[in-house]
Amino acid sequence: xxxxxxxxxxxxxxxxxxxxxxxxxxxxGSVTVKDVHDRILADPNRELAYTSVTTVLRRLTDKGWLAxxxxxxxxxxxxxxxxxxxDIIRAHEQLQRFLAVGNPDxxxxxxxxxxxxxxxxxxxxxxxxxxxxxxREEKQ
Length: 140
What we know:
The chain is mainly alpha-helical. The chain is built from 6 helices and 2 strands; from the N terminus they run αααββααα. The protein has a two-stranded antiparallel ribbon with strand order 1-2. α1 packs across α3. It starts with 15 loop residues before the first helix and ends with a helix.
């Protein structure tokens, strides 16, 4: 079970272009604006200004998703989290918002509406939670 990462971006919400560019950086690793721009323009149906890519990379840096390093005259962007870590943080945030409802009857009604596959997933999660609690108790 992967732990919740200690590092968190300042702002989790991303626009569609920000999410697309972040995925490109995850895929390519350390990138320049040209790397990202070329990847987007590889789709013949897409148009996007080079300066727009620069703006989005800077915005992702301001939000805490990317870091920028200067090597010579070039700037390289890299992610601050792996895709898996980002997924864990997003899932944690969604779960916290769901649990903030605070009414067990509402949450139980939601659980009752799930299909069998989702119910199996919920049960698997409950089993892992129970195992984690037992492991914690045994350490004490």
